[in-house]
Amino acid sequence: MDPDVDLHVPAQRAEPQGRVLAVVAAGGALGAVARYALSLLWPVVPGGFPWATFWTNVVGCALIGVLMVLVSEGGRTAHPLVRPFLGTGVLGGFTTFSTYALDFARLLDEGAAGTALAYAGGTVVGALGAVWAAALLTRRALGEPAVGGRDGRGGPGGRRGRGGLSGRSG
Predict the structure, then answer these.
(1) For position 156, what pLDDT does the model report?
(2) Nearest alpha-carbon partner for 114 in 104, 123, 124
(3) Is the pTM of this model over 0.70?
(4) 3-state DSSP assignment of residue 69
(5) How far, rounded to the nearest angstrom, does the alpha carbon of residue 134 sit from its chain's CA centroid?
(6) DSSP-based three-state secondary structure for 121
(7) Which one of 7, 17, 24, 132 is most buried, counting C-beta atoms within 10 A?
């Protein structure tokens, strides 16, 4: 393992694994139920764009961007179970790569290759753009400088060593 990679939120104490597993399971159940409810409210028509899964992944990624700024940047810390419950649990259960992949395969099987490709590319661009934009807007709302500027603190990436979304430090 790379010794420069910090897999924990800075200044966060370790929690017993049983408690972490319990909050991840509880959060995952809540997130998965919310995702399933959206799929029932917004069903996919044959050959149609899977909007429920698309927006679930985009909104979930935006919320991940907000969460990571709130619990790990600017010297802030949260209770050690907040990130596993909300991040890995709720948002991990809410967002879905498996349904995304199945929707893509279903569209191909139904002969909707153009829709499948638009969905595949649009989801990646939408999800990555959402996490970036949400993190940026959250930093701005908190009065913090944006990551990525040439501010003399770590080159083009800025905020070097702050334990941002990448998890890398120093």
Answers:
(1) 40
(2) 104
(3) yes
(4) helix
(5) 10
(6) helix
(7) 24
Rounded to 5°, the CA angle 110-114-120 comes to 95
10-residue mean pLDDT profile of the chain (170 residues): values are 49 73 96 96 91 97 96 87 95 95 96 96 98 96 72 40 39
pLDDT in tens, 140-151: 999 987 765 444
Paired with 168 in beta bridges are 5
Contact 83, 62 (CB under 8 A): no
Which residue type sits at 101? A
Buried b (16+ CB within 10 A) or exposed e, 104-123: bebbeeeebeebbeebbeeb
Between CA 66 and CA 137 the distance in angstroms is 8
DSSP conformation class of 90: I
